[in-house]
Amino acid sequence: MSRALSLTIYNLCLPFGLLAMAPGALVKMRRRGGKWGDFAQRFGCYDDATRAALRALPVEGGRLWIHAVSVGEVEIAKKIIARLLASCAGCGVVITTTTPTGGALARDFAEKHPGRVVALYSPVDLPFVVRRALEAIAPTRLVLVEAEVWPNLVHVASRRSVPVSLVNARLSPKSERRYRAFGSLARPVFAMLDQVLVQEAGDVARWAALGVDGARIRRTGSVKFDPDGADTRADEPRVAAFRALLAGMGWTGRAPVMLAASTHAGEEVEVAKVFLRMKTGLSDLKLIVVPRHVERSVEVVSELRAIGIEPVLRSALGGGPGRGSDCVIVDTTGELRAWQHLASVVVIGKSFLARGGQNPAEALMASKPVVFGPHMENFQALVTLLLGEGGAVGVEGISGLQAACERLLKDEALAAKIAADGKAVLTRHEGATRMTVESLVAPVGRD
Predict the structure, then answer these.
(1) Per-residue pLDDT tens for 139-170?
(2) If residue 350 lies in a helix (H) or strand (E), which one and from where to where?
(3) How far is the C-alpha of 106 from the C-alpha of 72, rounded, in Å?
(4) Which of 9, 92, 306, 358 is most buried (CB neighbours < 10 A)?
(5) How many of the other CB atoms lie within 10 Å of CB of 238?
(6) Sign of CA dihedral 11, 13, 19, 20
(7) Can you list the domains of the chain with their CATH numbers?
């Protein structure tokens, strides 16, 4: 199929897709703290202050537009941008996000780099909208994080001779099946990519099969799993502050802590039931729950109260109430990495009652033993390495979680060895951030 026909079919279907998704997107936006004014940026409309900030960005060393959907992708982008700014004094960066939580994290990062980084919401992928956004941002390169290949955005950038790079590229089994099912439509879009930086050697052939020129694919490793740029010392002030908050609740540094990371619906109450059973043998055990979506925190509180747990919201810590509670629910964003430093064992969410799993890398980098369920499909390559080298504990379901956690909490030597072996696995991706930045600043050959 030709590129023109592929884009025509896509653009005929896109308005119906946007209309179908709009109600759910609006509800989600409001729940996650989004503002109605954000919609202007979604349609490529920027106020005078934003346009002035864009014009002020340096361009002599290149101006990169980096698109990262939500929190996970923003964390990857932050590592890339930090190294990029350090190595290229004359470059500027615009980071765009889709979700309110990702947007808040991106804005916080941009505020720490005034004059070098501007954070915006991403434009919807309508031709006239992306043209308007490209005119305002005026990038010298477009960088897409992980799997965000939007056909019109890529096409318009390509027509304007703006090289398009896909970094930390990954294909979940589900995404690969979907792309292959619509191969004739997808291939012309992927063929427009000037550069694809993949995580594993095996990914090269998979992306080439989807239409990317093999000469444009390079294995750099995973930025997400790269220990570089994730200096745990940077977390120390926040970790110390959290430890003080917990001490105010009566938690001592000697008490074992079970942390459930990035949990999805239904997982919190199941993990909490395991926690209650474990307390019969570990009476001083504590529980920290970090829901993947903070807007569910009130729902999680209700569910845990129904089984006899009186949790305290992280946002209320330090305000007086909560002393004596053995459970904290983290209802704030961007803090998971620091909270994991306070854990004795980390249980990975979305691996029990949902599919795909969540990223275990931050817990591994914090030298914590991790336990996950059977559904880690989105991180299969890493999981295979971890399990093969004893760097994590996999269980078949919630029914196996108690035994695994008790074994780690009662055998400190075993827990330390698993944590160390897990962290060692990440060294296979060491240098991924550096190689990614080197590829982004190097000239890209255009056909």
Answers:
(1) 999 999 998 899 999 999 999 999 999 999 98
(2) none
(3) 11
(4) 92
(5) 15
(6) negative
(7) 3-23+49-219 (3.40.50.11720), 232-429 (3.40.50.2000)
